Amino acid sequence: MPIGGATADAIAVGGGLAGSAFALELARHGVSTMVFERMRGPHHKVCGEFLSDRAQALLHYLGVDVAALGGSPVETLCLSSGATRASARLPFEAVGISRLLLDETLLQAAERAGAKIYRATSVERLEARVQRVRVQTAGASFECRAAALASGKHNIRGLPRPDAPMVGFKMHLHTAKAARASLMRMVHLIAFTGGYLGLCLIENGTLSIAWIVSAAVLTSIGTSWAAQSAYFARQSPFFEELTTGATPAWEKPLAVAGLPYGFMRSATIAETIYPVGDQLAVIPSFSGDGTALALASGIAAAQAVLNGESASSFQRRMLANYKPQFRRALILDRVIADARLRRAGIVGARLFPSIVTMLVSATRLSGLDRLITSADART
Ligand SMILES: Cc1cc2nc3c(=O)[nH]c(=O)nc-3n(C[C@H](O)[C@H](O)[C@H](O)COP(=O)(O)OP(=O)(O)OC[C@H]3O[C@@H](n4cnc5c(N)ncnc54)[C@H](O)[C@@H]3O)c2cc1C
Would the N or C end of the chain have less CB density within 10 A of its end CB? Predict the structure, then answer.
């Protein structure tokens, strides 16, 4: 636990990818920074664990050697709905890597750069004072010049995001040998009535499965892995094929409710409080670039603090950059939600796989080169 009353130039509320990126970028530029993370140690998170080339480039910029983490390479995307499926080459080499390993690696890198990490420390409130921010934890309060709101899927009191009917889950499985050939170097996106699943291998050959499902469908099928996986198998023979003989690594799946897809925080909290990651904006996970957005916004918020840019200007600039990417991702999400449209889409993808490759590119984060090169110029 931190000593109450301590001050720092900057505080990250949350030690996920966005909070750690913010802290690391500031600490390595000599700014005194603290990170408050509510969990005691490394932990799993609801996420498909698919890292795009953009996310990898941002991690590289932060000094993390992604290749050394031992993830599984991903080159091909396989889309399916019922018995219809299509494959296309990704426009880049992606990697499957657990968030447990990735988030802990980045948090430790922030610590090595000089940030002070306080684990098992939950922030209860953020309050803007004149030129300062007061950060209230369960046991003490702290002051800083600038804070990043980086609590991800969890909201801080008084700073809500809209509620939504989608629920997210994640499960790890030890795969059977027979299915491995269909899983190697592939990310599978499987649509079903009420949601979709993403499957990819991560380090040690473990299969990571993340899915979102509407609360209404969940009520009728139940929340246990046994009930949900039986439903997926009924909806998708391909899901059954990929998971036959696999054993769950956990007793029950991780879950997070009320995912506000399409949310963009345009209202300013205070000129000294910078929302980052899922607290700034939530892209539909089907396009799978949330980790790149979290890293990019954490780095950009740190650069804003270094350059004396206000939070309102930072938010305007970031959201304007996100808008085209979000628009395309939301259209894709609607196509996936509609059974007829997605079947037609997959048949089209089988005939013209290059269109899928193009769509994957279109839902990636743009403006990244500017972010990294402007920062490179300063270091
Ligand atoms: C089903 C699903 C699948 C996804 N799949 C992918 C994918 O394959 N690839 C991809 O790039 N993106 C994916 N995403 C998106 C991605 O997971 C998020 O965008 C990303 O995790 C956001 O990072 P973050 O740092 O903002 O938040 P988080 O990763 O949620 O981190 C927030 C941190 O803050 C801590 N915290 C919370 N509240 C407090 C508090 N009060 N005090 C202190 N600490 C606190 C938490 O413990 C946590 O460590 C997926 C999302 C979902 C829901």
Answer: C
Mean pLDDT of 81-109: 95
Taking the complete model, does pTM exceed 0.85, yes or no?
yes
Which protein residues are within 6 Å of ligand 1, measured from CB?
13-19, 36-39, 45-50, 55, 122-123, 150-154, 156, 168, 198, 210, 212, 259, 277-278, 285, 288-292, 294
- Please tell me the distance between residue 17's alpha carbon and the centre of ligand 1 in angstroms: 7
CATH number at residue 25: 3.50.50.60
User: What total number of domains does the chain contain?
Assistant: 1
Kindly state the average pLDDT of the residues 17-27: 98
Q: Whose CA is nearest to atom 31 of ligand 1?
A: 16
Q: What is the DSSP letter of 286?
A: G
Element (H, E) at 61: helix 53-61
Within a domain: residue 41? yes
Atom of ligand 1 nearest to the CA of 19: 25
User: Is residue 105 included in any domain, yes or no?
Assistant: yes
Give the bridge partners for 327, in sequence order: none
Convert the pLDDT of each residue in 264-278 to its tens digit: 999 999 999 999 999
Cβ-proximal residues to 43 (8 Å cutoff; 6+ apart), any chain:
100, 103
CA dihedral 40, 42, 48, 50 (to 10 degrees): 140
Q: Give tens-digit pLDDT for 254-263.
A: 999 999 999 9
Range of the domain at 34: 7-53+97-162+260-338+365-378
DSSP 64-131: --GGGGT-EEEEEEEEEETTEEEEEEEEEEEEE--HHHHHHHHHHHHHHHTPEEE-S--EEEEEEETT
Structural domain contains residue 354:
no
For residue 55, which atom of ligand 1 is closest to its CA? Answer: 11
Would 107 be classed as within a structural domain?
yes
